[in-house]
Amino acid sequence: MRIRSLFxxxxxxxxxxxIVICSSGCNSKTADNTSEITVNSGDIxxxxxxxxxxxxxxxxxxxxxxxxxxxxxxxVKLAESGYYNGKTIHRVIKDFMIQGGSLRGNGxxxxxxxxxxxxxxxxxxxxxYYGALGxxxxxxxxxxxxxxxxxxxxxxxxxxxxxxxxxxxxxxxRLTDEDKKVYEDYLSKLNAVPDDxxxxxxxxxxxxxxxxxxxxxxxxxxxFEILDKISEVEVSSGNAIDDKQGIDSKxxxxxxxxxxxxxxxxxxxxxxxxxxxxxxxxxxxxxETTAQAEESPAAVDTTDNTVQPADxxxxxxxxxxxxxxxxxxTLTTVQSEETPAPxxx
Length: 345
Hints:
Strand content: 15-25%
Number of domains: 2
Number of helices: 8
Mean pLDDT: 79
Largest sheet: 8 strands, antiparallel
Distance between the termini: 51 Å
Helix content: 10-25%
Number of strands: 12
CATH architecture of the largest domain: Beta Barrel
CATH class of the largest domain: Mainly Beta
Shape: globular
CATH superfamily of the largest domain: Cyclophilin-like
CATH topology of the largest domain: Cyclophilin
């Protein structure tokens, strides 16, 4: 069975040499973005076409309905309805994240696909690594606004934990009870991280400070060069939430989401019927036996190959985020002081 040709027929826009594609019999199906990312039968992929000034590029994502069923469903429905077409990337913070999908394309407003509340869906296995796709939130929760983590600076969780432990011991007498609790809580969070998560943050980077606080429902698998180009655009003031912190985040060049296309990888089944062949008597020279031979059935080869389409049932999740700077964000030994949360204005 030609898996690549079947995939092309069902989702040609997602094909890429760097993606591992498994058939329905593959046992390595990934249900989170901490494990090695593979593309398997039944997976849902999204291709985001973005125009940066005069240049156009694509970022491709694998979505994770196993972890965030409602969030994935919301994103897929919005994309397939054409909601994102023409919307902008309105917020760019280098070494943190980019954000888009607002209702008016300027950071204000958003909507869910079914006009229903989309809950926050988090998992210890879905982390804010470089290239992670998540939902922003505002006071009303999640809607259509999303963010993509663009920080690829390695983050050493073990070393950070050691540094905080040292600070607690050295400055314990000078810390207020409130500040001490902030350090202790963050230290506990760091120490609870599994080894494979620590390893991935160290190798790929990300935004560890937002882990567990936002829905991460996808992971970029191709097009990182486009993400990096967006991250390098010139920015100015103009986004209220960042202006309050003295952070420039409004792109000075137009960054437009041309479209987001969804592909579902089909389930593949190969069925071969038993091949039966009926014998044919050898021809003889007489006219009578020749006529009898002509009446004998020829060899029959019956092979039935069937392909079933993907059975995709995703559910929904929203987007937009406004959070105040927490005491943890001020720990220079842990995360940058200038790391705002994904947020709607």
